[in-house]
Amino acid sequence: MNRAAGDGAQDQQHGAGAAPGGNHNELRQQAVTAIRRLDALGMNRGSTGNLSLRCDAGMWITPTGMGADELRPQDLVWLGWDGTLRGDWQPSSEWHFHQAIYTARPDLRAIVHTHSAHATALACLRRALPAFHYMVAVAGGESVPCVRYHLFGTEALSAAVAQAMLDRDACLMANHGLVAAGATLERAMKVAQEIESLCGVYLQALAVGEPVLLSKEEMTAVIERFRSYGKSAPAASPNAS
Q1: Percentage with pLDDT > 90 across the chain
Q2: Does 6 have pLDDT greater than 90?
Q3: Which residues carry out catalysis?
């Protein structure tokens, strides 16, 4: 693990990226709980993967090189959009694509990156996850794209991931892993777990033959149905009989 430059926590407050007010302990605890959950599910191991939460004019992100079992709320690093850093550790080496996704998608507030086995296996085949099952639409489209391979922690990878996530809540990174996002941490976790499961089913289907894919029209109908799925019914009109 690498400590941030300087003695102790950095707290440079300037520009639009000035460090957020308060200590945001609850938010950071949610991040720790989630990263440990991913580890328990086998979706990450050791210090693989990372997680971030949008906060004010920046994000809280897991530090580089720290395993889930040793991570504490105070270990998360706050990184402002202007590069302002606050924390005792260096941010995840993948902070570039987290920032790029938040910039491209103002509606997203949580990002999860895993090296989960099935999603990573499919990414190593450099194959997208197609519309072989209607639940692929959980990521917001008719497929989950796989972006070209780029070295981790680079601007090239960030640009490719941000482009793929413009109209999706998940993508695969060739020879690397999975990125999932959502308007809430709960949603980002749900998308990550669902896409990992679907990648496993797809790989099993490929072992037997080529799966039959749903049409664009069929997937469009699923996406439209998902818009109201799991939402509460509207309140009854007081004039209703």
Answers
A1: 79
A2: no
A3: 94
